[in-house]
Every structure is written in C-alpha cells, then in structure tokens.
Amino acid sequence: MSLMIALHDVRKVYRLGTVEVHALRGVSLHIEQGEVVAIMGPSGSGKSSLLNIVGCLDKPSSGRYQLDGVDVASLDDDALAAIRNRKIGFVFQTFNLLPRASAFANVELPLTYSKEERASKERIQAALEAVGLGDRIHHRPNELSGGEQQRVAIARALINNPSLILADEPTGNLDSRTGREILDLLLDLNRARGLTLVLVTHDPGVAARAGRVIRLKDGMIDSDGDALPQAAPAGSAGGVQ
Fold this sequence. Notes:
Blueprint: E1 3-16, E2 19-32, E3 36-40, H1 47-54, E4 62-67, E5 70-71, H2 77-87, E6 88-92, H3 103-108, H4 121-130, H5 146-158, E7 164-168, H6 176-193, E8 196-200, H7 204-207, E9 212-217, E10 220-221
Parallel strand pairs: 3-8, 3-9, 6-7, 7-8
Antiparallel strand pairs: 1-2, 1-4, 4-5, 9-10
Helix pairs in contact: 4-5, 5-6
C-alpha cells in the first residue's frame, strides 16, 4: 500500500502577543492508504492542530508534511484549497450544514469551489443514496434527525471522490445507537471505496474499531499510544471490527 499521510518532526507554534504556544512538538507519523486510524488525547494535547495540518487548513511551523506524495508545506493558499477540495472530505461533530438549504444543496456545496463542471443531479442523488438518504433529497436540516444530518455531511464529504476522510468527533452529538450507525457507515465506506479514514475521538468505543490508535499528549505522540493494527496489516481495512 502507498503512503497517504507522512509527517516528519512536525511542529506548530502559535504566537499570542509575546507568548508562544507550542501546540505540536515534533510529531512524526505515517498513515497508509486505506487505513482507519483514531487519534485520541486530552484537551490541549494537540489533536485540533494536528487535524488542521493534516487537512491542509494550516501549515506546520517546521517539519515536513506529505499528502499522497505532495509536499504540502511548499504550497500556497490557492494550492492548499485545491488539494483540500480534490483529496479531502471533512466530517464535523456539529454537522456544519447550511440551515436553509436542502440536503441536495448542502451536498452540492463543495462543487462551487471546484473548477470542474457542476455535478449532475444523478451524482448528488447517488451520494445521498450511498448514505441512506435517497428519499430525503429535498429536506432541510431542521426536518432531519441528528443522524440524518450527519449522513448529509458525510455525503457532502464524498461528493468530490476524496481519498481521505477526516472525521472530527463524528459521533459526539449523537446518541449511542445513532453514533454506532454513523460509525458503521464510515467503516463501510472505508471497506467499499478504500478511503483512508482518520477519526479524532474521545470515545474509547469508537477508537476500538479503528485499525490503529494514536494518542497525543502535550503536543507529542504518546510512546505507549501509537498502537499497531490489532488484526490486520497496516493499510488493510480487515482489522476493523
């Protein structure tokens, strides 16, 4: 399998006036194509900073980051936006849907930032059907349950056929049964499409279903937390239960 994510000695320093906040203190990490990886850690451990860098929303202060063989640190803002749109799908805890827009319009939204031609109605319909919402295409978020809203968000993440899905606490605002359904959906997409899936979570039950768990502490990878896949070689979805 090829490397999807490669970080070498990545550091992130935020300057607040005269104060320096060291959010990441030398993170080195490899994630292969098709892996399912959970990232855990207490508040302030650097999870958000790491996710922002991996998602090309921010650049490291130093170190090297390659996404699917591309040296991200060397890209300008326009190139970062293009690689985000083309290679990465985002799923957030709070869904981040446009409240007055239909499910169709929310899924279509990433295409407005793409230079490709607008997707056909059939393609958007297919994305909603892939997450079990083919009959909710015209519904607005306030007409959908929390689980259905998260499914719309997942369909939106899939619309540009990304190779990487970054899910930030994707079950955090859902009850336990609905959360399991959403996690099942993400893992099914990993198996069916070979998507690389990175889950930021505080839930041990979610992390237990990943092939590997990476724990952050004080901006560094905990030496006891970078676990190897439990039942399958790296890059295989077979270890996901």
